[in-house]
Amino acid sequence: MGKKKDKDVDAEDHGKGQRSPKLCGTNYPVSIAFIVVNEFCERFSYYGMKAVLTLYFIHYLHWDKNLSTAVYHAFSSLCYFTPLLGAVIADSWLGKFRTVIYLSIVYVIGHVVKSVGAIPDVGDSTVHVVLSMLGLVLIAFGTGGIKPCVAAFGGDQFDEEHTEERRKFFSIFYMSINAGSVLSTIITPILRGDVKCFGGDCYALAFGVPAALMVIALVVFIAGSGLYKKSPPEGNVLVRVCKCIGFAIRNRWNNSKKSPKRSHWLDWAEEKYPKRLIQEIKMVFRVLVLYIPLPMFWALFDQQGSRWTLQATRMNMDFGGGFIIKPDQMQMLNALLILVFIPIFDMGVYPLIGLCRIKLTPLKKMAAGMILAALAFCAATVVEINVIKSVVEPPPAKESLVQVYNLMDSEVTVQFPGHTVFSDPLKSYEDPSGYTSLPLTGESQLYTVTVTHNGAEYQCGLTFTERTAYSLFLHTAQPGDTVCKLVKDHITKSETGAAYLRFINTHTENINITVGTEEFYAAADYGISQNISVPRGEYNGVVCKTNSDQYLIDLGLLDFGAFYTVILSKVGNGLTFKKMEDIQANNIHIAWQVPQYVFITAGEVMFSITGLEFSYSQAPASMKSVLQAGWLMTVAFGNVIVLIVAEGAGMEQWTEFLLFAGLLVAVSIIFSIMAYFYTYVDPDQLDKIFREDTDDEKVESSDGKKNEAVSLTDMPKQTKM
């Protein structure tokens, strides 16, 4: 064991003191090219998989929207908890290089398992769920574990004197992240929707390509092995901080009655830990307290891939000229806009605000970012209110929905005893006026419906069940006889924007109809076909076959999310049809989502980037990784908030959006109050203070008493908020 450990350390030490080759005579190490390509492929892998995840849950695993949203955010949350584990492994045990390799292998295995789980022929639905969840857990440990290592490992490749090159490297590194995100959120939805496999959307391919990119990322990273500077593990400061805090708590608990009180509870750690470490932890705690309200921002921000994607599925996605965007491709707007907004804010917005003599401190920027995110959800609320106008909501308990088709030769009146649901006469072959609510006395109820046609009354006994939608078809079986046919309806719109279609055959022969790749069968004499979804598009030259003949009909456009009933009739030697729209098509264009993406991205620029800048400026150099861990925790807990609301709130989507907006406004007010009382400090002054008052000794004061430990009140102050 000892030899193996020494060998591992030697491997990490290899290249530590060597100067790696430079790119084209610059001060940029060749090794960073491998790291940037690795990051691009890894981000493509992660965001590409995540882009189609919500729709995968709904269409492949057949989960409802709330469960799909909850699992999506549980996965996102785990991806931001696991970086803590990755940092501890890298700093305390394996080092950054080997941590990236080992956890990337876990990452690849997760992708492969996830892809296999998306193959319908592999097992049953239980196997698919188990493989999908196992794959997601492995991916979360992989992506989260390498998250704190790759960027830091890239920074390690530079010589100390090349600070400007290192700064530019991080800009390039950030660009590679966004480039991978943009391309993946464009490509993987295309692989999902436009490529068909196993009789439906090809989720196996949509997950398989990100898996292949992660394999490439791993191979590229290993290929640069001989060029890297590899530093040995130096101990994880987060572990040391936790031990110091734990000792302070235990010491205070054990000795609070015996020893004199101390100015700060962390001072109880002085018996074992240096005063400098204690002072640095105090500084970190002051920032971490400000982190408490921050998860609410991420609760809103990360819904782009869940609730906003589901909203997009119920919108018109046609931009004309044959260009149709997919609902899960809208997420690319965030990555595109972030690249545009960063220079605009840095070189335009912030300087203009400065010219107005408004001092925009980091905490003020963060509060403004929260307000912008809340505005994004206000915009999403307005869009949602208009989107649901074309949606038929399922009826509640003790209610049914019913619409009537009059296929008689003249108008009829329909009467339900005790109710006036259809008070006006219904014209022959008229489009139904929409679904009408029918109250029931219990879970089901028998209604004796009176139909009046040409002065004659007919009665039909019809049983309606709660929470169900029906179509009532009225037609003549023979002269003087009226038939009432009650059919259960499917009213839930497709999450892919597909249209639903059914046929009613008034002909005396059975008819087989082919619409695209879908086959319909309608029996003779008012037989009704199944209600089947077909992709949105123009359908001309639809083939209708009977036993004796073949006909072509032009159905025209079957639009996003619409439900159609097509009535086929034999007239002379031809076949005629009437297309009726049962449920309105998605008439709100997806471009109306752009304002909410603009607001949320502007909020991200002001909140996220500024938040990291503020955190780093207020923490000592040795504590920056601790604050990075704290920052990632805010993202993780933000996703937990969405998980709880999605599963527990049970409210309409537009009210949920409004709830999140209101909560973030309230949180931003609390944060602003906390920020007002926050006083900026200069962590660099610690060096000066501790040169005068070392960790190992206390300077005796003039009256012979020892000075107290350095306090934050001794630090040079800057402005508030």
UniProtKB/TrEMBL annotation:
User: Which family, according to the similarity comment?
Assistant: Belongs to the major facilitator superfamily. Proton-dependent oligopeptide transporter (POT/PTR) (TC 2.A.17) family.
Major place of localization? membrane
The entry's protein name is: Solute carrier family 15 member 2
Task: State the residue spans of region: Disordered.
Answer: 1-21, 693-721
Please report the organism this UniProt entry assigns to the protein: Cyprinus carpio (Common carp)
Kindly give the Gene3D superfamilies that the UniProt entry links to this protein.
MFS general substrate transporter like domains (1.20.1250.20)
On whether Transmembrane helix is a keyword of this UniProt record, the answer is: yes
- InterPro entries reported in the protein's UniProt record: MFS_trans_sf, POT_fam, PTR2_symporter_CS, SLC15A2
Q: Which UniProt keywords are listed?
A: Membrane, Peptide transport, Protein transport, Symport, Transmembrane, Transmembrane helix, Transport
GO BP annotation list: protein transport
Question: Where do Basic and acidic residues bias regions lie?
Answer: 1-16, 699-708
Which superkingdom, per the lineage?
Eukaryota
Signal peptide span per the entry? none
GO CC terms in record: membrane
